[in-house]
Inverse folding.
């Protein structure tokens, strides 16, 4: 752990300390390797395996793989295993954040336009390395990042640095720049003579083929499309791409073995995105029972981002608990309940970045507040997300043969979801990044 503390302080070191940095990096790789080769037996009063809660179970890990999961008194513990016992705590699979923006930070600190237009990619990337660290230490060992919002392919670079052990963070699936239709996306409201850099890459018609291929070439793990946006002077969410355009994007994306995911709030954009082959619908502010059923039929997962709406409303002056909720919050609560009633698969993703990285649990708390059972929210952030993102053969569950991403939180999150705020232990691929006791 001492090595990691040095690592966090890297940015305070001068260039003259290059030798020291090299030494630290060397130490870190040694740290990772030696740690990863260790066998751990972790127990607690409860173990959530991604599907069910078990009493007095344990998980045995050997480096990057889980060896055994079961009642703790029925597992043979190898003599060279390090045993870590937690009491009133819950072991869970590493949590999966379904919708992050590591290149953004809360808009009440710096508004979105300023982050996109005035901050350099290098400054934003430096900040993002801290966001990645905070995400991991909050128990989120995997994250799907939904676009750099004007920071090019910095997400691809951050993912690489994490994979190479240069910085710490969750394993990432990244979108890169994301795609918007001409005229729809921000920053907006500037003199039309100005060429304003946008928060995503505009493309239309047949040009979409070239742009999808280019984004894949530059490192996009999936293609993120804004199927609608607050478009035109009235600021309403309107479908931006035609059904045929979305189908074309999906065809080109699929042929590369990747998937298309869609930001879609309006009913028509959700419908088009689903029919065109989107795998997840982001936000879905106007989802209803009928659309939820359509999504279910097409095996599409809903990523609600309830926290984004809630928090942005507060940034705009809503005093939660004191004032009546504004219309968009009331609408979000209503549509979230309709989504639950429809039976559509609901994953967890909060648009974190709008609120602080490391506070990812806020989305889970609000999902409960908006009407979902804590146990279902726990599944959303583990097994449901792993299935939605095609990771369910290796992540999102505690099962033998799966990657040893193991988190321990104090208390019982299936009763009180805020227990996830109290992270005791974080292991990613056999390496311990946090251990409170
Ligand atoms: Zn987003």
């Amino acid at each position: 752990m001492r090595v990691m503390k040095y690592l966090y302080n890297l940015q305070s070191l001068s260039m003259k300390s290059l030798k020291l940095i090299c030494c630290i990096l060397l130490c870190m790789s040694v740290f990772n390797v030696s740690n990863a080769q260790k066998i751990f037996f972790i127990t607690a009063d409860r173990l959530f395996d991604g599907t069910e809660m078990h009493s007095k179970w344990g998980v045995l890990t050997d480096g990057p793989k889980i060896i055994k999961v079961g009642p703790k008194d029925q597992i043979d513990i190898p003599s060279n295993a390090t045993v870590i016992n937690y009491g009133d705590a819950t072991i869970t699979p590493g949590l999966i954040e379904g919708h992050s923006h590591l290149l953004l930070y809360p808009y009440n600190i710096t508004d979105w336009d300023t982050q996109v237009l005035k901050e350099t990619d290098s400054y934003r990337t430096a900040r993002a390395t801290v966001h990645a660290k905070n995400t991991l230490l909050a128990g989120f060992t995997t994250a799907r990042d939904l676009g750099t919002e004007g920071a090019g392919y910095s997400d691809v670079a951050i993912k690489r640095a994490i994979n190479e052990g240069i910085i710490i963070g969750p394993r990432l699936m990244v979108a890169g720049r994301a795609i918007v239709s001409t005229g729809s996306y921000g920053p907006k409201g500037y003199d039309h003579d100005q060429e304003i850099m946008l928060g995503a890459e505009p493309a239309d018609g047949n040009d979409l083929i070239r742009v999808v291929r280019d984004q894949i070439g530059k490192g996009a793990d999936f293609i993120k499309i804004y199927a609608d946006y607050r478009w035109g002077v009235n600021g309403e969410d309107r479908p931006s791409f035609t059904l045929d355009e979305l189908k074309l994007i999906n065809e080109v994306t699929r042929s590369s073995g990747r998937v298309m995911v869609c930001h879609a709030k309006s009913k028509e954009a959700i419908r088009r995105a689903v029919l065109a082959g989107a795998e997840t619908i982001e936000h879905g502010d106007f989802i209803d029972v009928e659309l939820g059923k359509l999504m279910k039929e097409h095996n599409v997962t809903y990523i609600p981002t309830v926290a984004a709406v809630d928090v942005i409303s507060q940034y705009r002056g809503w005093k939660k608990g004191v004032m009546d909720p504004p219309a968009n919050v009331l609408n979000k609560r209503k549509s979230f309940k309709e989504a639950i009633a429809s039976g559509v698969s609901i994953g967890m993703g909060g648009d974190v970045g709008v609120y602080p990285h490391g506070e990812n649990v806020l989305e889970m708390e609000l999902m409960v507040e908006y009407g979902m059972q804590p146990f279902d929210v726990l599944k959303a952030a583990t097994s449901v997300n792993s299935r939605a993102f095609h990771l369910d053969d290796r992540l999102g569950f505690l099962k033998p043969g799966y990657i040893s991403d193991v988190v321990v939180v104090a208390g019982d999150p299936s009763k009180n979801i805020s227990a996830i705020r109290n992270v005791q232990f974080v292991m990613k691929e056999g390496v311990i990044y946090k251990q409170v006791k």
Q: What stands out?
A: The first helix runs from residue 2 to 8. The first strand starts at residue 39 and ends at 43. The chain has a mean pLDDT of 93. The pocket of zinc ion is lined by residues 99, 101, 146, 351 (CB under 6 Å).
